[in-house]
Amino acid sequence: MRTIEPTTQAENMLKTILLSFFLLVITCNAAVQDFCVGDLKAPEGPAGYSCKSPADVTVADFVFTGFRAAGNTTNIINAAVSPAFAAQFPGLNGLGLSIARLDLAPGGVVPMHTHPGASELLLVVQGSIVTGFISSANNVYVKKLVKGDIMVFPQGLLHFQINAGGRTAVAFASFSSQNPGLQITDFALFGNTLPSSLVEKTTFLDDAQVKKLKAVLGGSG
pTM (2 decimals)? Predict the structure, then answer.
């Protein structure tokens, strides 16, 4: 009777394990979904948009050309923010990142605001910008940025951008979410229907100041 050597048994067991692992990898790869291009015709939920059928996906879903032209800075803040979030760039859906272009005319400002859903990384590509954020401990971090400089703003913290020169400044802001959200403090306080008496008590401003700001920012009450 032929006896199988222990070494041969070990080799056969190793081959069996490797074959099983190889088959598992093939099966897993077959089930991987490479992307989930957003179906903008469907409602957006907390996790993003539903996926378009792969048969309907084209290269155009992965390309965004909206930054070729500067944003319109003819407005009350002399600034424009042009977003490339999932709603504008469906190929980002489910990937956890997005980007926006910021144009600041001379005297332009993006007022205090927060992004509840993402941290932000700001890269200046033209001009100079004074920017900063306030921590939850009320510590202030402010810096003048010039071309090539980058600053990060942690998720949910108040921050701002101001043109620091005599010509238009341009920057690109990337976010750690496909939909970072935005709440501008000035508009949250004075651009709604919250009664002026309540705004006055919570901001320590007098009635005339509150009503003036509401008139400027479109609020009432």
Answer: 0.81
Range of the domain at 126: 54-181
Distances from the Cα of 5 to the Cα of 2, 11, 59, 105, angstroms: 9, 10, 58, 82
Say if residue 120 carries a ligand binding annotation: yes
- Do residues 111 and 171 touch, judged by C-beta distance below 8 A? no
What pLDDT, in 10s, does the model give residues 38-69? 999 999 888 889 999 999 999 999 999 999 99
Is 11 annotated in a binding site? The answer is no
Same domain, 117 and 217: no
Q: Domain check: are 79 and 177 in the same one?
A: yes
* 68: DSSP letter: S
- Per the DSSP assignment, residues forming a β-bridge with 113 are 159, 184
Residue 99's beta-bridge partner residues?
Answer: 84, 174
